[in-house]
Backbone:
């Protein structure tokens, strides 16, 4: 049977020559991730089951990124719980404040993700690593706990939808616009239980950060994973990050797909997702007059260096609107330093924005930018559910860093030319 | 196993942010989570829910975040079962892994209203709307998943498998 790229990675990790859609398999894991919100539940589950070991201390990553630097005493106690677990089992990849970053930007940067890997994480945006040609998917804390104990997890082999991206993206059309457009087209359950495989000649125009953004939001269409083929862009990114040779899988030419979508990137315009679903999208020219109170540029979706560069391109020599609080959060300390060296941080501060240490904080209404009733934010994050960023009566509009920065300057949702 | 309870009915795409808002995720204590369950979609739920009650919903229940705190909060409220047209995949796995019974059944969802009394017989595979008398057949869970549920969750099933 011909296989999709995802099916080949699953088969290889299940020790099989081939797998078919719907088959239940037990597969070997290359990495298990959990964070300061999900790891305490995993640790508690292990304790309750009387399991006092981990299968491989080098294949577990624990990242303190959600409510850190700790926002309150309870959050501090959760990090303390994970910290003592990491010490007890001598976990190699424990990332605490000062060494951390937002998990899905950090793990690739640290060289912990290679093409062909199979990774699970107790965080729904674990699907991000598909940008590097790995199979990665979000699970819950108990699945992560079982993975930490045994090095294995069960999977139902998914079918796939193919997205053929064609041509060079139009000006100011980024990975964020492409994935929002796709989610708007197929809906927030349009890829439920399935893989999203991104192919086509348009991919060569997408840098690694755009690919991270696209794979990151596969979950917002309900997908199990999103995945890109491995090419020169991937291999360039990996240089110097990991000694592990990449295992490159390609979909069979006659692999079966549930659906195939062709998308002409040259014909796209920037896209904004309106409250309260990521699939509730409009093109920027269909937005109308929407005044805003806050802009957030950052997160696992759009806190990469090229996202910050796109924002700086807009904010250079400009002032943010007096009504708008602009919050900019580099996803990792390395990205923060790079932005500092390139002068981006100075541009942001001079424009009236605030720059924060890496944290997931505002994306999930945790801290560092919680919204009051009736407030509106344009955010480069990934979800705009009711109450996601604060009060149930607040609103989140999802957009690219470019549109978010433009909106910060004009005080309303804005695209177009600088 | 048979359960019986009153129904709380919701629509499509009930996400884990409304099931348990992130502002309460600074703890994993199940009773603390239960106190805020469904708060952002239905403030009356956590106050009114009684042991055995059933949540019925549309498509893609539990979409969004992978937080296991969502099924934990629902279970700790005393909810005996969630019936939906479809579930988001991480929520589905999490529910099975922690032993919260879930059923995909569009016909039952269409035939049940908010406040109805409903019973579910897991052994026979049937849902009965006691308010209307209508019954719905439920396809059995895959054997592999039944083993996890039967053992009382994923980790217990792993330990059981190891002993055998």
Residues:
């Amino acid at each position: 049977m011909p296989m999709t790229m995802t099916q080949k990675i699953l088969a290889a990790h299940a020790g099989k020559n081939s797998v078919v859609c719907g088959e239940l398999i037990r597969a070997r894991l290359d990495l298990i991730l959990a964070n300061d919100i999900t790891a305490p539940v995993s640790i508690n589950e292990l304790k309750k089951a009387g399991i006092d070991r981990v299968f491989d201390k080098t294949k577990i990553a624990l990242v303190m990124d959600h409510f850190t630097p700790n926002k309150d005493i309870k959050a501090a106690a959760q990090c303390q719980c994970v910290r003592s677990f990491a010490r007890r089992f001598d976990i190699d990849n424990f990332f605490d404040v000062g060494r951390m970053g937002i998990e899905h930007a950090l793990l690739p940067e640290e060289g912990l993700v290679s093409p062909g890997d199979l990774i699970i994480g107790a965080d729904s945006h674990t699907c991000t690593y598909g940008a590097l040609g790995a199979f990665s998917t979000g699970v819950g804390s108990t699945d992560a706990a079982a993975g930490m104990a045994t090095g294995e997890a069960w999977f139902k082999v998914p079918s796939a939808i193919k997205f053929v991206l064609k041509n060079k993206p139009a000006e100011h059309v980024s990975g964020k616009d492409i994935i929002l457009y796709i989610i708007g087209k197929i809906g927030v359950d349009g890829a439920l239980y399935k893989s999203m495989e991104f192919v086509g000649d348009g991919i060569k125009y997408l840098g690694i950060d755009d690919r991270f953004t696209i794979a990151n939001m596969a979950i917002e269409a309900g997908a199990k994973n999103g995945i890109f083929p491995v090419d020169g862009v991937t291999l360039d990114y990996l240089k110097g990050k990991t000694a592990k040779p990449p295992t490159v899988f390609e979909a069979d030419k006659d692999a079966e797909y549930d659906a195939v979508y062709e998308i002409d990137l040259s014909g796209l315009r920037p896209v904004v997702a309106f409250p309260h679903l990521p699939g509730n999208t409009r093109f920027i020219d269909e937005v109308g007059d929407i005044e805003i109170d806050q802009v957030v540029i950052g997160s696992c979706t759009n806190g990469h260096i090229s996202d910050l560069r796109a924002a700086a391109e807009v904010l250079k020599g400009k002032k943010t609107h007096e009504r708008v609080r602009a919050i900019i959060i580099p996803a990792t300390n390395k990205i923060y330093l790079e932005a500092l060296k390139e002068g981006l941080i100075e541009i942001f501060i001079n424009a009236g924005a605030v720059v924060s240490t890496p944290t997931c904080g505002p994306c999930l209404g945790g801290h560092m930018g919680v919204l009051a009733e009736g407030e509106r934010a344009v955010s480069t994050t990934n979800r705009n559910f009711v109450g996601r960023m604060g009060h149930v009566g607040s609103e989140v509009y999802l957009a690219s860093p470019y549109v978010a920065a433009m909106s910060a300057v004009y005080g309303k949702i804005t695209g177009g030319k600088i | 196993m048979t359960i019986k309870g009153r129904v709380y009915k919701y629509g499509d795409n009930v996400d884990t942010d409304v099931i348990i808002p992130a502002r309460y995720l600074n703890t994993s204590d199940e009773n603390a989570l239960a106190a805020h369950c469904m708060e952002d979609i239905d403030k009356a739920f956590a106050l009114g829910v009684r042991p055995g009650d059933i949540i019925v919903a549309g498509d893609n229940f539990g979409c969004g975040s992978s937080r296991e705190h969502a099924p934990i909060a629902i279970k700790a409220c005393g909810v005996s079962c969630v019936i939906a047209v479809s579930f988001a995949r991480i929520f589905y796995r999490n529910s099975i892994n922690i032993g919260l019974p879930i059923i995909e059944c569009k016909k039952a969802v269409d035939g049940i209203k908010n406040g109805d009394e409903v019973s579910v017989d897991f052994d026979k595979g049937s849902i009965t709307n006691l308010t209307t008398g209508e019954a719905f057949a439920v396809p059995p869970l895959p054997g592999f998943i039944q083993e996890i549920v039967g053992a009382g969750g994923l980790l217990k099933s792993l330990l059981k498998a190891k002993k055998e």
